[in-house]
């Protein structure tokens, strides 16, 4: 039986810190706090070196493009977060969260970052921690893709893999228990807690949303997938402030409990969750759409075949939601040609053995009692053993 009680002190501490961090002006420029919160730091001291590394890392962050797609009734735009430095929407989240924690003094030269993530957040943390000279221990589970596990083991001295399922049949609670245990054992451990950390929402408010706001005179709809809720919390707030009347559509995966759905085993990582993330309280959401995994596969494959974009699972999920929303009568929902943006969290490479593998896609469809469109009408192979989700 998994218990959450051991996480309580960590959560309480985070909450105190978050209150402080959210009082920071979102407009405070880069390194606003570097000179404000502390006495001058010698650049040759360990702390000074950490600040210098932060500074040069920030300059390497760049901004992923927004591209227009051919669509009949819409001006449709995709923001390609897979073109971030490490490869996903989690880059900014990881960098800005670390930056805020360093500026507050929660993370110092000797800190060890411990986080439960088998996906893009772990990859981003692994890269930024390496660059900052910090130790990082990812806590992963058997659902991690081979590609990601290889990358994490290659760059982190310690990777902890839990194998015991929790009371929901998944691994999330077991992973969080392990994080709590490591934080108790390791002096100077720091747990970012990506499901609750307001610095992450702040990162998307400052970076991801700022790029969108700077690219449009008017935006009518934004479709954003939800996993930890960090992206939608930060981006929706900024878009509501800037674009009058914008509709924010949150997109969730079938089998996720985030918006009250029944839990079910999911095979495609990224969107959806088996817990309701605390960050969601900060999101401004007008509508919620739920997309099945079969629709996700279809969405991904349509993005390649019609638009030449080779993107990850959650991009296909969100694209499928856009397609369904504007199909038929939806085509005239607002104005003649509304400006519609959807966020694409990562690229397709990690999904080659699943979403882009015909056998896997047929196995998935057979599991859901459907045949995915875009595949030859071969007999569904129920016996196919899927590689674990990408
Ligand atoms: C591929 C992918 N898509 C979507 C998301 C969801 O974004 P968020 O956690 O900000 O809600 C994530 C989060 O890790 C992701 O890795």
TrEMBL record:
<dbReference type="GO" id="GO:1901605">
    <property type="term" value="P:alpha-amino acid metabolic process"/>
</dbReference>
<dbReference type="GO" id="GO:0016740">
    <property type="term" value="F:transferase activity"/>
</dbReference>
<dbReference type="InterPro" id="IPR023927">
    <property type="entry name" value="SbnA"/>
</dbReference>
<protein>
    <submittedName>
        <fullName>Cysteine synthase</fullName>
    </submittedName>
</protein>
<feature type="domain" description="Tryptophan synthase beta chain-like PALP">
    <location>
        <begin position="61"/>
        <end position="324"/>
    </location>
</feature>
<keyword id="KW-0663">Pyridoxal phosphate</keyword>
<dbReference type="InterPro" id="IPR036052">
    <property type="entry name" value="TrpB-like_PALP_sf"/>
</dbReference>
<comment type="subunit">
    <text>Homodimer.</text>
</comment>
<dbReference type="InterPro" id="IPR050214">
    <property type="entry name" value="Cys_Synth/Cystath_Beta-Synth"/>
</dbReference>
<dbReference type="InterPro" id="IPR001926">
    <property type="entry name" value="TrpB-like_PALP"/>
</dbReference>
<keyword id="KW-0808">Transferase</keyword>
<dbReference type="Pfam" id="PF00291">
    <property type="entry name" value="PALP"/>
</dbReference>
């Amino acid at each position: 039986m998994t218990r959450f009680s051991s996480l309580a002190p960590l959560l309480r501490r985070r909450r105190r810190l978050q209150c402080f961090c959210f009082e920071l002006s979102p407009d405070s420029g880069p390194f606003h706090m570097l000179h404000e919160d502390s006495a001058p730091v010698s650049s040759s001291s360990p702390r000074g070196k950490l600040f210098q590394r932060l500074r040069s890392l920030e300059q390497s962050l760049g901004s992923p493009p927004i591209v227009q797609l051919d669509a009949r009734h819409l001006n449709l735009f995709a923001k390609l977060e897979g073109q971030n430095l490490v490869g996903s929407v989690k880059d900014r989240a990881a960098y800005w969260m670390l930056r805020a924690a360093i500026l507050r003094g929660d993370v110092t030269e000797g800190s060890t970052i411990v986080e439960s993530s088998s996906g893009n957040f772990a990859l981003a943390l692994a890269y930024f921690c390496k660059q900052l000279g910090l130790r990082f221990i990812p806590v992963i589970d058997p659902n991690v893709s081979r590609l990601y596990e290889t990358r994490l083991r290659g760059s982190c001295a310690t990777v902890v893999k839990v194998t015991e399922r929790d009371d929901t049949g998944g691994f999330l609670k077991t992973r969080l228990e392990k994080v709590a245990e490591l934080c108790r054992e390791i002096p100077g451990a720091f747990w970012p807690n990506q499901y609750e950390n307001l610095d992450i929402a702040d990162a998307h408010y400052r970076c991801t949303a700022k790029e969108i706001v700077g690219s449009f005179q008017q935006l009518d709809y934004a479709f954003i997938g939800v996993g930890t809720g960090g992206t939608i919390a930060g981006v929706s707030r900024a878009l509501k402030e800037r674009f009058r009347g914008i509709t924010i559509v949150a997109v969730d995966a079938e089998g996720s409990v985030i918006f009250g759905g029944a839990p079910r085993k999911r095979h495609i990582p990224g969107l959806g969750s088996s817990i309701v993330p605390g960050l969601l309280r900060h999101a401004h959401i007008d509508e919620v759409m739920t997309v099945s995994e079969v629709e996700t596969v279809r969405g991904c494959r349509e993005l390649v075949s019609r638009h030449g974009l080779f993107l990850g699972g959650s991009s296909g999920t969100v694209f499928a939601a856009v397609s369904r929303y504007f199909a038929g009568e939806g085509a005239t929902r607002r104005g003649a040609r509304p400006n519609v943006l959807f966020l694409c969290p990562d690229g397709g490479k990690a999904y080659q053995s699943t979403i882009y593998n015909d056998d896997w896609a047929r196995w998935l469809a057979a599991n859901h009692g459907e045949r995915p469109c875009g595949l030859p009408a071969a007999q569904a192979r129920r016996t196919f053993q899927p590689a674990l989700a990408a």
